[in-house]
Prior knowledge:
eight-stranded mixed sheet, 12 helices, globular
Amino acid sequence: xxxxxxxxxxxxxxxxxxxxxxxxxxxxxxxxxxxxxxxxxxxxxxxxxxxxxxxxxxxxxxxxxxxxxxxxxxxxxxxxxxxxxxxxxxxxxxxxxxxxxxxxxxxxxxxxxxxxxxxxxxxxxxxxxxxxxxxxxxxxxxxxxxxxxxxxxxxxxxxxxxxxxxxxxxxxxxxxxxxxxxxxxxxxxxxxxxxxxxxxxxxxxxxxxxxxxxxxxxxxxxxxxxxxxxxxxxxxxxxxxxxxxxxxxxxxxxxxxxxxxxxxxxxxxxxxxxxxxxxx
Length: 280
């Protein structure tokens, strides 16, 4: 099982949409894929029209709100109880989603009861062990787990992006200098400390893919945007996702509504890279 976290420093970069399309593409190729909504600040991956399950009775945040904050919680039995919350995406066999919540009007109450975020800050080893117990349970069911991480600098984002996955897809938006993303990229570079932490979970050094979104091909602005990115990041992005004005008014996934498009082609490249990393 390959665990991949999709992260962006700033919202509005298309990170969740990229994750959803890549997951759809991988499932269409015969893989078993789980989309895991861990964006606690802006959850709702399952509300995208093409990902909506038939019925959501509870979500990951509801489950996590029952965290007692003890080592006894880090158990296979507790982790297995989460599997009942995973739901199939009805129009794509092999694709499942673990939604963050069921009723948006109750989300505020759930977040108020969420003490796990304090655990990440006060006892990161315990919090990391808890998430790893979940992944250990899920690995028998899926070939790929794609995690939607919160934006910005957060303890949860650091756990999800630096300590849990095999791969981190770091998404930045052309048109703004990605100083924050550069800092995150540098902090994820192998170091004696991170190597030791990842070795505890039998993980190799983290592999990263940088993605620049909303590029304008064959336009003077694109040249200026690439130059600004390269000056800040020190290198060109691994993959560019072009701008599609249709996405401004339509939340349907390009992977569902088109046999080919520039955006879909870029998402396929990300999926290709993940398949290659799985075989390594």
